[in-house]
What does this fold into?
Amino acid sequence: MLLAIDIGNSSAKIGLFEAGTLTASFRIRPDSPDSAESLFEAISSELEADPYQSVISSVVPATLPAFEGVARRITGSDPLIAVHSMDFGFEIDYRPVEDCGMDRLLAASAAVERVGFPCIVCDLGTAATIDLVDRSGIYRGGAIAPGLRALYKVLHGDTAKLPLLDPEAADSVVGNSTRTAIASGVYYGFAGLVDGIIERVRESEGGNVPVIATGGDSAFIASVSRHASETAPNLVLEGLALLYERNRVSD
It folds into this structure.
């Protein structure tokens, strides 16, 4: 079995793959992300099988060594660490390539495996990224915007009286209280941001390009979005498993 670890800004997502199929996944938010022992306990306590291979991606470089040590301890072998020079299944047109978030490339790789070229990938988490792999099979990059929760934080942090609220779906676009007005503005506003960028990316590609959404807020927005209604919550983990298969060194 393959242990896949995707280290994000706010948490790490863990997946177990058997013969290329995701059999289990969970998310951890360890109290001490730099502590190898706490990470080992958090991950190993959730595992119901014993993986003997591992692959790791990270957008938080400082936490990578601890996760790498834990993966080695669990599997008994060195993990494959995702780097930008590996084969993702497409050419990358991003400058410099090392500045492109690894999660963006992995999600795009898994999306291409699902629907082929071209495709648009929306990763709606801490930040919202909307990326294009074009008809020629080239990853072109895309747009980065504030995530859903960032919008709530900005409203609260940059105003004197608006409260910090948890995300909620709006019953009506016209809110008749501060709470419902904020819910409407963020809910429909964020969906409009996502849809507007998708429409412009589609125009640039000259057609009705398939869209796949992933990330922690993708399911929340899917019901109101006009274009990001197809969701795949484990797209980055799927991309990690594909990366491992393409780039592992045979024994």
Observations:
- The beta strands are 2-7, 12-18, 21-28, 53-58, 80-81, 91-92, 119-124, 127-133, 138-146, 211-214.
- Residues 91-238 form a domain with the Nucleotidyltransferase; domain 5 fold (CATH 3.30.420.40).
